[in-house]
Design goal:
- The protein is mainly alpha-helical and about 170 residues long.
- Helices cover about 75% and strands about 0% of the residues.
Length: about 170
C-alpha cells in the first residue's frame, strides 16, 4: 500500500468520524436509554461509512479496483452495476444520516420508511458484495482490505440488521 493511498484512507476515516460525531452531538439526549444511544451511534457510523464507501469509488485506486471487481464478477450491465453500487452506497448512507438528524423534525412514518429503505439498500449491496468476494475469478487484490473472505462485508450487513432491530424495538 502506497503512502498516498494510506493518507487518503486515513483522511476518509477521519472525515467519517467527524461527520458521525457532528450528527451525534446534534441528536444527543440525556433521557435516551442505552439501546437508543447505541442505535443512534450505529445509525451515524453506518450512515457515514456507507456514504464514504460510495464516495471513495470516484477516486483512484478505489475506482479502478471497483471497476475491476465488476468486470471480473461478470455482473450484468457492468456500467449500470458500477453506478448502482456507488450511488446505492451513497444513498443508503445519506438515508441513515437523515434518520439520525430528522427524528425531531420528520414524522414517525417517514422516518420508519427511510430506515426500512436504507436497511433494504444496504442488504442488497452487501449481498452482492458477498457474491463478488466469493467468486474465484475475483482476486483479493481488487477487494476492500485486499481480503478474499467477505469479513467486513458481513460485519456491515450484521450491523445494518442490528441497527434495524434496535430501531424497531425502540419504536
Amino acid at each position: 500500500m502506497s503512502t498516498s493511498q494510506l493518507l487518503l484512507e486515513l483522511s476518509l476515516i477521519g472525515s467519517m468520524l467527524v461527520i458521525t460525531g457532528y450528527f451525534l452531538i446534534r441528536t444527543y439526549d440525556k433521557a435516551d436509554d442505552l439501546g437508543t444511544k447505541v442505535q443512534k451511534i450505529l445509525t451515524g457510523l453506518l450512515g457515514a461509512f456507507m456514504l464514504m464507501a460510495g464516495t471513495v469509488k470516484f477516486f483512484d485506486p478505489f475506482t479502478t479496483m471497483f471497476t475491476t471487481q465488476i468486470a471480473l464478477s461478470e455482473l450484468p450491465f457492468p456500467t449500470l452495476s458500477r453506478w448502482a453500487g456507488q450511488l446505492g452506497e451513497m444513498a443508503a448512507g445519506t438515508l441513515l444520516l437523515l434518520v439520525m438528524i430528522g427524528q425531531s423534525t420528520l414524522s414517525k412514518s417517514v422516518i420508519d420508511r427511510v430506515m426500512q429503505l436504507s436497511t433494504l439498500l444496504t442488504t442488497v449491496i452487501m449481498l452482492v458484495a458477498v457474491y463478488v468476494h466469493l467468486l474465484p475469478s475475483v482476486p483479493a487484490e481488487v477487494l476492500p482490505l485486499q481480503s478474499k473472505p467477505p469479513v467486513m462485508t458481513l460485519i456491515i450487513l450484521g450491523l445494518a440488521w442490528l441497527n434495524a432491530f434496535l430501531y424497531q424495538r425502540r419504536r
